[in-house]
Amino acid sequence: MNVAVFDTKAYDRLSLEEAGKGILWHFHACRLSRESVPLAGGTDAVCVFVNDRVDRPVLEALAAHGVRLVALRCAGYNQVDLEAARELDIPVVRVPAYSPDAIAEHTVGLLLTLNRRIHEAARRVRQNDFSLHGLVGFNLKGKRAGLIGTGKIGRIVARILLGFGMEVVASDPFPFHEWADSLGVTYVPREELIESADVISLHLPLLPETRHLLGAAAFARMKPGAFIVNTSRGGLIDTTALLAALREGRVGGAALDVYEREAGLFFENLSGTALEDDELTLLLHHPRVLITAHQAFLTREALAEIARVTTRNLLSFHRGEPFLEGTRL
Q1: Is 56 considered catalytic here?
Q2: How far apart are CA 119 and CA 294, in angstroms?
């Protein structure tokens, strides 16, 4: 089976080659787009990541080149036109839960780092600056954490934050009441969560109805000085509104592993070049913002699981066998 893999890094090659012994991989560093579709010519499937473009024109072009399957090596699928894929009879599969622990742990790591200014302290001591001015944080114990979304990742984050002695409230259109009752997590309306939480953490997919979930209206209702953590999708936050809320002090800090216009920026080495995105530049230089480049998933265990599920589905398709349960969209 021939598979074209787009937006490939060294760690992708290692994990996929290890897991997919029966697959002839064709690795491409560029992202999938209308212009790069010809690179998939002669292959049975494409394997794509979060910033590849899989809209109707790309899918139509893939079909014209004989591509019969799209395999996402990620959980999110907002970049895929599923209606067009169904019309073209191109199955789309994903990796729904490659390592919720990895993302949950990164979420809490971002919160701790931003709150206690660990990144700033590390920078200072490397310059022989051992002063503590400006490094004051707050105890997590006794504070209220609000989780928007209680899927696998959100539930693990809740358990970790409860271990710090935080009060955890949550909002989800499909609540897990038995889980919440067993841990002492309380479901509340989203509006109440936004108004009362000291820390708001996002754990939900990017859909038309969740785009800019946190925008000007939400920031206006937030508890002054509250922290925001986002390891889900950048489009959940209105960046323009976030910058205004930071200026006004409505938001005390933001820890972000994702950004709504990250495509073409994140996962690339752009050192020595000037960023043309003014809002990202402002965020990167803001003293109360911490950004990592979509690395929450990046653990050995997560990469191995992504490769296992992806190659299993590719080989199942090749053999005419069912896909792994819960992976087809």
Answers
A1: no
A2: 17
